[in-house]
Write a structure and sequence with these properties.
Number of strands: 11
Number of helices: 0
Mean pLDDT: 95
Largest sheet: 7 strands, mixed
Structural class: mainly beta
Strand content: over 45%
Helix content: under 10%
Radius of gyration: 13 Å
Order of helices and strands: EEEEEEEEEEE
Low-confidence stretches: none
Shape: globular
């Protein structure tokens, strides 16, 4: 079992920044690839960013490339999503999740999920 707890969401103006955190506990954190997803009201859950076991491979949704950065801290058992130049269309609940499948953007291939943190970007 892995427990994931997200934090860092909030209300920010367009062009602003937020840093999301995901704290992991339970089974060995380094065994998993990690991903961030988001879900806006009335929309499907969407892959945002992912990072490999060792942290050397990172992959992003096209629309967030150059604005968002994913990283992980093994000492803290955490993964982060730095979000810059935020836009109103980034508004959603953001979730972190674990997978063994490197490079996957399919939410059905992720095993453990956090409860989510709300990000709201005002125009």
């Amino acid at each position: 079992q892995v427990q994931l707890v997200e934090s860092g969401g909030g209300l920010v103006q367009s062009g602003g920044s937020l840093r999301l955190s995901c704290a992991a506990s339970g089974r060995t954190f380094s065994n998993y690839c990690m991903g961030w997803f988001r879900q806006a009201p009335g929309k499907e859950r969407e892959f945002v960013a992912g990072i490999s076991w060792g942290g050397s491979s990172r992959y992003y949704l096209e629309s967030v490339k150059g604005r968002f950065t994913i990283c992980r801290d093994y000492a803290e058992n955490a993964v982060y999503l730095q979000m810059n130049s935020l836009k109103p269309e980034d508004t959603a609940v953001y979730y972190c999740a674990t997978t063994y499948r490197l490079g996957s953007s399919d939410p059905t291939q992720y095993d453990y999920w956090g409860q989510g943190t709300q990000v709201t970007v005002s125009s």
